[in-house]
TrEMBL record:
Species in which this protein is naturally found: Caballeronia sordidicola (Burkholderia sordidicola)
InterPro entries linked: Bact_Polyamine_Transport (IPR051789), MetI-like (IPR000515), MetI-like_sf (IPR035906)
Membrane-crossing residue ranges in chain numbering: 12-32, 62-87, 99-123, 135-156, 177-200, 241-261
Membrane topology of the entry: Multi-pass membrane protein
Family as reported in the entry's similarity comment: Belongs to the binding-protein-dependent transport system permease family. CysTW subfamily.
Presence of the UniProt keyword Cytoplasm in the record: no
Any Gene Ontology CC annotation: plasma membrane
Any single GO BP term: transmembrane transport
Residue ranges occupied by any ABC transmembrane type-1 domain in the UniProt entry: 62-257
Pfam families the record matches: BPD_transp_1
Cell compartments where the protein resides: Cell membrane
Top-level taxon in the UniProt lineage: Bacteria
Protein known as: Putrescine transport system permease
Length: 273
């Protein structure tokens, strides 16, 4: 079998990276453009960052989206970890197929269907029980958790299946309870999967538009809804500034998370050796 040359591989790799990152780089560059036209460069300026600071609607929407994303990521990791652990360790119990299908369903069901279903559920619950009284942060949070649990469960399941079960069995033989084994041995070993699941859930939540559109109410407009409503009226350089800040925030977060995971992995390998 003929293998492609080293230069050819690097060429295609470079083309792929350029295709992915040139739009992001151009967005960052034009966020410092003084002109109101997003595609015409005039001069370097922080004009749109200053405008962004005084845009109360965007700031409030961003703060709401960040709060929902943090709550969603934390809840999804807690519930999804248990769900993934059950899939990986509990074997094929009665109802396993139904359980696995329910965990994986949000991955294949379109978000529009999920949003309509949850909206109808909340409307009927409000009629029967008087709760929830209105749609807002709580209802959006429930929808996002329902979506993100599946992703966390799959990540945790794949990581748990890679673990050597003899470590847990040894602790059980020494008298530890299953719950103690889970918190003292299993959780530290799958910590990287938990961090990855948390970051993925945070990203999915803060970026979600469809579920938020169905489950939001007056006074609970998330950032994607505000951006989408403004972009439909025309591109605004202020959106470039906002996107640049989010790119910087995500980049710092990913680098920090990778550093922590690599440091913990080095410590674990050192202790093993």
């Amino acid at each position: 079998m003929i293998q492609p040359s080293r230069s050819l591989r690097f060429t295609f790799l470079g083309i792929g990276f350029l295709f992915l990152y040139i739009p992001i780089i151009s967005l960052i560059v034009y966020s410092f453009n003084e002109s109101q036209l997003v595609t015409v460069w005039t001069a370097f300026s922080f004009k749109w960052y200053r405008a962004l600071v005084h845009d109360d609607e965007l700031i409030n929407a961003a703060w709401l989206s960040i709060r929902i994303a943090v709550f969603t990521a934390c809840a999804s990791v807690v519930i999804g970890t248990w769900a993934g652990y059950v899939l990986a360790r509990m074997g094929r119990f009665r109802g396993f197929t139904l359980y696995a299908g329910m965990i994986n369903a949000p991955l294949v069901i379109p978000e529009v269907i999920q949003g309509i279903s949850l909206l109808l559920l909340f409307v009927e619950m409000a009629k029967v029980f008087g709760w929830p009284a209105g749609r807002g942060l709580f209802t959006i949070w429930i929808g996002h958790v329902m979506l993100c649990i599946s992703y966390v469960a799959i990540i945790v399941e794949s990581r748990v299946r890679e673990l050597n079960p003899s470590l847990e069995e040894a602790a059980l033989d020494l008298g530890a309870t299953p719950l103690s084994v889970f918190f003292a041995i299993t959780l530290p070993l799958i910590s990287q999967a938990l961090v990855a699941g948390w970051l993925l859930s945070f990203t999915l939540s803060i970026d979600d538009l469809v579920l938020s559109a169905f489950l939001s109410g007056p006074g609970s407009t998330t950032l994607p809804l505000v951006v989408f409503s403004r972009v439909r009226l025309g591109l605004n350089p202020e959106m470039n500034a906002l996107a640049t800040l989010f790119i910087a925030f995500v980049t710092v977060g990913v680098i920090g998370a990778n550093y922590v995971m690599q440091r913990n992995e080095r410590k674990r390998l050192t202790n093993v050796l």
